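For the sake of transparency, this paper describes our internal protein records without simplification. Such a record has a labelled line for the sequence and another for the backbone structure tokens. Nothing more is needed to write down the fold, since each code stands for a local backbone conformation. For reference, a complete record is included directly beneath this paragraph.
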Amino acid sequence: MTRAGRIGKILLTVARHRLDRNIDRFASHHWWYRLSPLRLLPAPRKPDAVRLREAIENLGPVFIKFGQILSTRRDLLAPDYADELAKLQDRVPPFPGEIAVALVEASLGDSIASLFESFDTEPIASASLAQVHAATMANGDEVAVKVIRPDIKRVIEKDLALIHTMAGLLERTSRDARRLRLKAVVADYERTIFDELNLLKEAANTATLRRNFATSELLYAPKVYWERCSESVLVLERVRAVPISDIEALRAAGTDMKKLAERGVETFFTQLFKHNFFHADMHPGNIFIDISDPANPSYIAIDCAIIGTLSEEDQSYLARNVLAFLNRDYGRIARLHVESGWIPPGTDPREFEDVIRQLLEPIFQRPLKEISFGHFLIALFQTARRFNMEVQPQLVLLQKTLLNIEGLGRQLYPDLDLWNTAKPFMESWMRERYGPLALLTNLVEHAPTLAVELPRLLPQIPDIVATAMHKLTDMDRRANTQREAMERLTSAIDGQNRRARWRRAAGGALVALGLVLLWRPLADAIAGSDSVTVTAGVVAALAGSVLVLRG
């Protein structure tokens, strides 16, 4: 489809689903919206958010993926939009198996018969970017072969160009759209979707997750067959287990649902605080349950294209904020935000503390197990945004994953207490990083260096201290000098502004005087005896004009 044809389809979809009503939230004050002929049509019966989801589904895979990612920005979107966009399903008709075979052969440089003992041309799964085929290796291993869709990169690039254009148009015409930072969201989406097109990155993520849980019963990641992988082909061990969404099958097998839910939370926080490498796309389609031992169920994770990591500062931010929340220490939460740089240094911590208290006290009126961990983070982010906090992409991934984990966990076991499950991990992480043992370990690790450097540095310590004191004094002197220079500069600017205002006032007066003096017809004045008046008037007008322009 040509660019013009694609634009035409988008405009037709906007009209059919009455998305002008959605735009009303952002641009109802603009003249082009008030004059839109669509406003003459009857009001739609479906809610705005539902119509937006249906329109995105009609626009195809790239828009569906964008809507899915947009649904995770609950710090930006209204709840009804976030909830509805989260329902977007990545259902795309499969492409012919013969094309998949040709793509695999072209990418791996060999015939399908040489690469696999058998290859099923009928796909077992199909999504917007790729589809999956069952196959068997020469040694009898059952594998899943993921193949990127043909020509999908060109389709993505075309649709992304249109999405960028629409985001830019909305930001130029709407303050709310600028607040949502639509262009930045689109840029994040662009990076994410192109990362998903590189299956070698997914292979590396899967192998890392597998290694991290190699000795654990909590999670299993499939084996990667590296010799059969490329940027557009991924071959993994085929797992056969119960999808986590099949609650009836899990219960029928006698699965310990409480243990399964708690293990899900434990698995996530192990990834977050122990490995600092967490699967950030844990929706039901990517999680299976091994119930070979129903009393000790474990998780199997696939589709590791999107992985989240946190810096030590982010981990500390999360752990200390949650522990302060559990202790209802709102002042601590406020100070943490300022100290970590999440909100501007000039923010009044007491004002921020009052806002946090107003936000969280109503939440504590419910039992702790009924309080959503994910929604607590969303509320915290939304409140901090009022103080110009910019939510980092890695924290958005964390928030999204927490919501998925919490939702799945409570679906499995409604009485799941995520807070009590998470708290030991956070306390343990804080002890490991900042406790006495951590200090001792750090000293031991640096002991060889200290043993060499300390004897050399000891005699220099007095000089180092004296130099440091001198530098501090010098810095203080320079700061005073800079402050005095700034005061002089400010005074000079004020004086210049005062002189400019005087020139403008004097110039205006002279222009007025010139106009009065030149009131008589100019020709009569020049021909007659009033040439002095004319000359004076012209001079006054010119001088006044110069002063006005210079002012």
Q: What stands out?
A: The first strand starts at residue 118 and ends at 119.
